C-alpha cells in the first residue's frame, strides 16, 4: 500500500547487472533505458536546476505526462505544509498508539520528522492531515499546483483526509512532480524558507557513487488497492523522486514505474523497483 524500506535484493541485482559497464553519461542511450524498464511502463527525468535544462529523459508513449497516485511521495508536500503551519518542529515526537504492524516493524514506536520520512510511516501522515484540515490542504495543493489536487479519497468512503494519497484520488504526473520539486529547491513555494529546509534535510539518503549527496522519497502502491492488505496479483505503481547536490550544481530527478502485467512471484514494492532503476541511472550518468 505504501513505500517500504525493504529492498528486494534479486530485483536490485538484476538492475545492476543490466547497468554493468555503463559509467559515463554518453553510454546512457534510449536502448539502455528501455532495457532497465523492461516489464514496466515507466518514466525517468533528470533536470539540471543550475542550467535550467532537462539533461536526460525516458518518456515512451508520453508516460511522464500520465498521472498516477502520489502514494508516499505525498510526504514531501505534507512535511512542507506541517512545518509551514508550525504544527511540527525538528524536535517533534509523534506518539505511537501501540497498534503493531507486522509488515513494518519500524513503525511500531514513537517517531520523529526524520524517522517519519525514513521509514515512510503512514500513521504519522494520518495524524497530520486531520490537524491541517482538508480546506487548508486544498489551498496548499492549489498554490503548489500539485497534480489533480483531488483529496476526496476512495469513492463513497469519505476517507480523503486519511487515504487520498494511498493509491486513491490524489494523482500526479512525473512532469508535475518535477515542477513541484524544482519549486522546492529554488524556494519558489509560498511557504516559510525554514519549512523547505527542514523538509529537504529529512529526505537525505546518502551519497551516490561519485560522492554527490542526494535526497529522495519512495512511493509504492497497487492499482485496485485492497484495504485488507491482500494485494497479490495486483499491478504495482512505484515512485522515486528527489534532488542531487553535485558540486555547485543542483539536479532534480523523477522516476516512476507501473507493472505491465501482474508478477505474483515478486515481493518487491513498486517504490523500491523505481529506486533501483533510478539509482542505476544516476550512478551511470554521474560516474565516479
UniProtKB/TrEMBL annotation:
Which domain of life does the UniProt lineage start with? Bacteria
**For this UniProt entry, which residues form the secretion signal?**
1-25
**Alphabetized Pfam families for the sequence:** Transpeptidase (PF00905)
* Presence of keyword Hydrolase: yes
InterPro entries from the UniProt entry: Beta-lactam/transpept-like, PCN-bd_Tpept
EC no. given is 3.5.2.6
Q: Where is the Penicillin-binding protein transpeptidase domain?
A: 42-282
Give UniProt keywords alphabetically: Hydrolase, Signal
Q: Which GO terms describe its molecular function?
A: beta-lactamase activity; penicillin binding
- The name under which this protein is listed is Beta-lactamase
